[in-house]
Write a structure and sequence with these properties.
The protein has 180 residues and is mainly alpha-helical. It contains nine helices and no strands.
Length: 180
């Protein structure tokens, strides 16, 4: 039995669920943190979304069917939680999703946890100009070096469509960085 299947089995058992969940957090916290951070931008917001993600995983592990990797299933939850957070933030501030994204980028320089230089900041500005789907694909490929297969499982989209999205997003980012 693979390590992942063993962990899933332990997560679904009432006797071992809590210890297995601590192990799950140890294994995936950092990767999920950076995935969420690339979407919501702020460290504090990322911590909130990460906590919500792990709560959702804990409550819904019994729904995990094993059709995909556990990692892909958790990334899908983290992605959905991040996008929901951004939509709720925009609604609360009574602004569009694009304006909320721009606000997050504008606040990035003030974020004490942002360690990037001007080039990193410019890259974040370029990514923020992309449509939501292209942002996700670009972040997953560029920053996390996920395979198209993994992205396909997470985003439930064909690999071909993801390759096209990444290509278009890369061209747009390159054009933005060249012209600004």
């Amino acid at each position: 039995m693979t390590e992942e299947l063993n962990l899933v089995e332990q997560l679904k058992s009432e006797d071992t669920k809590e210890a297995a969940f601590r192990e799950l957090i140890t294994q995936y916290k950092e990767r999920l943190y950076w995935h969420i951070r690339n979407i919501v931008k702020s460290h504090d917001d990322t911590d909130d979304v990460l906590q919500n993600t792990f709560i959702k995983i804990f409550k819904n592990i019994h729904n995990f069917k094993g059709d995909s990797k556990l990692f892909s299933w958790m990334y899908r939850i983290a992605t959905n939680e991040s996008l929901t957070f951004l939509k709720q933030r925009a609604k609360h501030l009574q602004i569009s999703n694009e304006e909320a994204q721009q606000l997050a980028i504008n606040n990035l320089k003030a974020d004490v946890y942002f360690e990037g230089d001007d080039i990193q900041y410019k890259l974040q500005l370029a990514i923020a100009k992309l449509p939501e789907k292209q942002q996700l694909v670009f972040n997953m490929k560029y920053f996390q070096d996920l395979t198209y297969k993994n992205m396909s499982d997470i985003l439930e989209t064909s690999e071909g469509a993801l390759k096209a999205s990444y290509h278009i997003a890369s061209k747009k980012v390159e054009e933005y960085l060249t012209n600004n």
